Amino acid sequence: MGAGMAKSIAICAVGDELLAGAHPDLNSPFLARALLEMGHEVRQVIVVGDDEALIAESVERLARSAQLVFVTGGLGPTLDDVTRHGVARAVGSELVTSPEALAQIEAWYARSRREMPSSNLRQALVPKGAKVLFNPTGTAPGFEVACETSRVLVLPGPPAELQAIWSEVVEPLLIASAPVECLRLVRSFHLQGLSESVFADQCGDWMGRDENPLLGVTVARGVLTVRCVARGQNEDQVQALLDGRADQLRERFDQWIFSQDTSDPAEVLVRLLEQRGETISCAESCTGGLLSAALTGVPGASAVFSVAHTVYSAKAKQEVLGVSEQLLRDHGAVSEQVAGAMALGAAERTGANLALSISGIAGPEGGTPERPVGLVTFGVCYRGRVWTEKRNWAPLAGRAQIRVWATSHALVRGVRALEGRLDFDQSA
Predict the structure, then answer these.
(1) Domains in the chain and their CATH numbers?
(2) How far is CA 3 from CA 36, 154, 194, 243, 427, in A?
(3) Where are the alpha helices (DSSP H) in 20-82?
(4) pLDDT given for residue 231 in this prediction
(5) Beta-bridge partner residues of 17
(6) Which phi and psi angles does 283 have, rounded to 5°?
(7) What is the pLDDT of the chain when averaged over all its residues?
């Protein structure tokens, strides 16, 4: 999509809880990132309470300056959910019960094997003439309606529902309504171990907002996701642009890329183990079960994973995993030597082909000048060979974040082991 084809966009987030600070507005940042990658510019984001008159005034005002207006939240079944009423007032239309919306709500309750309360009939109300947008995960259908020369898209407030309706309904709708010459192809890369700022430095001009392909970056749970969006007048041209940038990304960031399919390193690891017919176990200290929880959160993990060891104390490391008292005394529980022994012990006791271990100081207390808060050590035992590593994360990140980062890091080290990309001979 060329610069002249970009649409101006405004977002109106609705909810008393947003104004009160009880919940953050997660939907506006999500929409802004996704729309920017499509070449659209979000020019305004406003937050309003659950007030019909204020919603109507806000939608009218935004529609005068933006080609697309997104309204999020306030589509629930209770009397304080008045977004549909405010939008109807803004467009000068009455609310009517949509048979299509009602059928969607009834189908959701049928799938859930629950009786639909009468209050949910309120969620089938839409402005007369509106187009209903299917909600794949919840009971609140969205809808689209015209206001002046603008398109107003009204979406449910729960982030999981909004993201599902975006991916399955709204994004394809916007692509389908774009001019034919605005063909758009997307490719994603998922990286671990690299900060967003370092990535930006190494990308240089690739991240310019006028670049084609356009790069968008998001970070979550220690994983950096890069979306590469190419646009052009025909498929061959767009594919060539995308392939060229993708090759450059792989060449420059190969050591950090762990997947092009999913941002979940646990899923990548479980699928690799399934393909190879191999098994995994783990031994955790500072992460306290987060690693095993990530693995068992993947459907089908039972085929490759059976035993987890959470060994928080030095005594547990000795008794459960066979880590020697001498090793603990000489090097300390948070050391590469002990992490390696933990991984080896987990592999030997379970017969797993691959074992991962984590030991660290997540804080906020417990650090020393030699072993500061944020120090985490890792062990990988694959088919009897042991590899170890240590990482230092900034203590200001906080205990919870350090534990999340450590979990993602360990999972990607497991992926690297299966791919033959860990140098066991150079490990400590």
Answers:
(1) 3-178 (3.40.980.10), 181-259 (3.30.70.2860), 265-426 (3.90.950.20)
(2) 12, 26, 31, 22, 50
(3) 27-37, 52-63
(4) 82
(5) none
(6) -135, 120
(7) 93
